[in-house]
Amino acid sequence: MNSPVDRRPLLRIGELSRRLRVSDHVLRAWENRYGLLQPVRSPGGFRLYSEADEARVRQMQAYLADGLSAAEAARAALEGGMSPDPGWLAGPPAAAGSEPLAALRQALDAFDEAAAQAVLDRLMTELSLPAVLRDVVLPYLADLGERWQRGTASIAMEHFASNLIRGRLAGLVRGWGSGHGPQALLACPPGELHDMALMVLGIMLNRSGWRIGYLGASTPVEELARAAGTSPPDLIVLAATVPENLEPLRSELASLAGRVPLALAGGGATAQIASAVGARLMTRDPVTEAEQTRWPR
In which domain, by residue range, is 143 found? Predict the structure, then answer.
């Protein structure tokens, strides 16, 4: 346990940022996504950070330097040990090789929309859609997320690349709620804003004949349940990047899983949570999960 001295609030985030040479945007992301920082409020309402917070950030930086992902590094810093986190975005080794991924990264890092669109256009003509999504788009998004967490990709770069790729994915979803196949209802829990991997899952399920009802990011569970009651789906998929976005919802998810088949996906979906609520756990990348998800009988 931390001693009272270790836990004494000492610093505001600006000073912590200067000490650690990590931007305050990245520190806030590590605090919000992973719980790495545990500030207390001053009487004036300011967040104050302790020596223990500083030590955890330094430990996380050391794990990042050793090659761990941001999620792995944060978990290791919090738990004092290593914990694997394969990540839902990262698929198997790229069948198309690293060159397309490098070309896409170069264009997007340079804020060159025309070049990035040209790379994606070429890939769409040369490769199958599953190969483009699994071997290029998803690994790129995983890499971008890691670089943003490390502070080596700017907010502007992340927004530019994410918006461009989201636009391309949006072009693939027209009419995905039509047809006569089984229906899947896809959503992210409250507080979860990262939904592009879930979009990829929906696109690939639709290519397999599923009808998609897409609720997207930060969906209240009561709204998800209401949508499921209005038009009962054959499957609900709830995706989260961190367990903290699912843990508080155990009772609501157990109730939902008792009425409709429920699957949990993403880096935040753990075997413990899935078992506790009676849900299926999706552990593979979204393209593979879509390929392996069978129609209900």
Answer: 99-170
Q: What is the pLDDT of residues 108-121, one digit of tens each?
A: 999 999 999 999 99
Four-CA torsion 72, 280, 265, 250, nearest 10 degrees: -80
3-state secondary structure of 252: helix
Burial class (CB in 10 A: 0-12, 13-18, 19+), 88: buried
Interatomic CA distance for residues 271 and 275, integer angstroms:
6
pTM of this structure: 0.70
HSE, side-chain direction, 13 A CA sphere, residue 264:
29
Whether residues 159 and 188 share a domain: the answer is: no
Q: Cβ of 32: how many Cβ atoms within 10 Å?
A: 13
235 and 207 in contact (C-beta within 8 Å)?
no
Residue with tokens 């990348």: 285
Tens-place pLDDT, residues 65-116 = 666 777 777 888 887 644 334 456 654 444 334 688 889 999 999 999 999 9
Alpha carbon of residue 28 to chain centroid? 16
Higher pLDDT: 5 or 229? It is 229
pLDDT average, residue stretch 46-70:
81
**Nearest 10 degrees: CA dihedral of 274, 1, 67, 240?**
30
- How confident is the model at residue 42, as a pLDDT? 80
Split into its structural domains, the chain has a count of: 3
Of 116, 145, 170, the last residue of a domain is 170
Distance CA 72, CA 75 (A): 5
State the Cα–Cα distance between residues 286 and 140, nearest whole angstrom.
14
Q: Contact at 8 Å (CB) between 198 and 142?
A: no
